[in-house]
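Figure 2 data, in text form.
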Amino acid sequence: MKRIAALFLSLLFLTACSSTAPAETESPESEVTETVPAETEPEKPRTMSITALGDSITRGYGLADVNGERFTSLVADEIEKAGMKPKIANYGVDGLKSDELLAELEAGYYTAVKATEYITLCIGANNILGPSFDFLEAASTQEGEELKKSYKILREKADAGCAQYEKDLPVILETIRGYNPEGKIILLNLYHPYAHFDISMDSIEEGMTLASLTDEYIGKLNAITESYAGEVTALVDVYAAFDGQSAEFVCAYSENGEMTNMDPHPNAAGHEAIAQELWEVLAELDQ
């Protein structure tokens, strides 16, 4: 279980860095500063407004230049290239789970939702991340039947996290529509952050790897998201965009066959991939 212990230590540091209470949502991080056009300007360009809801992926956790490299900023650049004026409110909050997002929505903190053309939604990853950290803490000191018992608890909690997401998502969508019936909702599904980590977990369950376990629960969350694709304006398939390229698009990496960094967040290249997929959807909708 030395690899499990190493995994726990690296993720413990990540948890301390990325778990933040959703208390900053009253003042979203704006991508664009409003300016008054000159009187001589012949025609005011059309404004494309987007309100981005989500967790640390949306906020841009870990990027060297958050305001310049996260996917919402890159989409703002594309909007400008298309001759329009971007107006983007980024409400991403580190560590946010689906029930917390719903509570914030119902409390009225996401004010920009009420008057925006598009609402992007990327949520759910933290519903299973917390139970994973709990398991890794236990796994660092356990073996045998005791370890298998902790793994069973992980499964129960992760399944409960998926069930919570399934319960919250339709209410989140309903709440958004209550604020803005004309707003176009775009769902983003989740990528698989550890597809490039083929680490055996045979001591817990025969034939299981870290990649297969993670992909199983990402798949469950994505199945829930995709079940609502027909009820929203569009679905952005981030999972497909990252498929086969997680090593290039995710911060997690290994050296000499050992786990070195288990940060599951997208790096700058990953945010570029998300932005490209989202912009393609927006450009098609805007035709």
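Caption note: The chain has one domain: 2-31+43-285.
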